[in-house]
Write a structure and sequence with these properties.
globular, 26% strand
Length: 277
């Protein structure tokens, strides 16, 4: 069973539940809220550990502050190895401001903080992976670090999975080495507009399921009463996918495991279960 390394963001999410999202210039009252562990990287690492990956390592950067220390402690409690999480002395831990309406749909503003800083140590850690291991990357962090880490991991024989979210242009050689590139429908349109289609492409369709090349799975329907919010559902999908691939699952079984994890993630409020900080 291979290892999973997750290169991505660690954010503190400030979540507010609202009846509906405000329009520009409007103030609405929130019904409830809280501060939670989030960031695509942290969400995906937590999901990979929850999905049973034998060893999950977090490759990330936080600020030298209380939020960063709290997040590192949380990762350890989840069974995620935080030893490669580096500390910035010039930028705070990343943050996200999230509103969730009664239908479970979310609106998110991300303040990158330490996530945006380049960090060669993360590339070095990615290069220590090997055959059977999986590097999962998302794009809320410095893109040069993502590209360099992906190249280093692939050169070492590891499998590289890139979640092209939030959408950004990566060098063609980095897109080409990913197996797969994971996008949702919106990101797929942006990728198609770039005229740079990867050889291994996995598209998620929310409740309608997902498709990887010619393989696909139907959506797993979640009763409306069970929906907490949709924050982190895509990250849960990606983390479970990486865990399944590290176990040696074929694409169909990996898709099924990922789809089930994504469907389960809408049942709680916040990007991770029991994620209050």
């Amino acid at each position: 069973m291979g290892r999973v390394a997750v290169l991505g963001s660690l954010n503190v999410d400030v979540v507010t539940l609202v009846e509906r999202h405000p329009v520009p210039g409007e103030t609405v009252l929130g019904r409830a809220g809280g501060r939670y562990a989030g960031g695509k990287g942290g969400n995906q690492a937590a999901a990979a550990a929850r999905a049973g990956a034998s060893h999950v390592q977090m490759l990330a950067r936080v600020g030298d502050d209380e939020a960063g220390a709290a997040y590192i402690a949380r990762l350890g409690a989840l069974g995620v190895d935080p030893s490669a999480v580096s500390t910035s002395h010039s930028a705070p831990t990343g943050a996200a401001l999230i509103t969730v309406d009664e239908a479970g749909e979310n609106s998110i503003i991300v303040v990158a903080g330490a996530n945006a800083e380049a960090d060669p140590s993360l590339t070095h850690e990615a290069g220590r992976l090997g055959p059977g291991d999986v590097l999962l990357c998302s794009l809320e962090v410095d893109l040069v670090t993502v590209a360099d880490a992906a190249r280093a991991a692939r050169a070492a024989g590891a499998r590289v999975v890139i979640n092209l979210a939030p959408y950004a242009a990566l060098p063609p050689d980095v897109i080409a080495l990913a197996d797969p590139v994971v996008v949702n429908e919106y990101e797929m349109r942006q990728l198609a507009d770039s005229d740079l289609l990867p050889g291994s492409l996995l598209v998620t369709f929310g409740a309608a399921g997902a498709r990887w090349g010619t393989d696909g799975v139907d959506g797993i329907q979640v009763p409306a009463g069970e929906i907490g919010d949709t924050v982190g559902a895509g990250d849960a999908f990606c983390g479970a996918l990486a865990a399944a691939l590290a176990r040696g699952a074929d694409p169909q079984r990996a898709l099924e495991a990922a789809n089930e994890a994504g469907a389960a993630a809408v049942r709680w409020v916040g990007a991770q279960p029991d994620a209050a900080l």
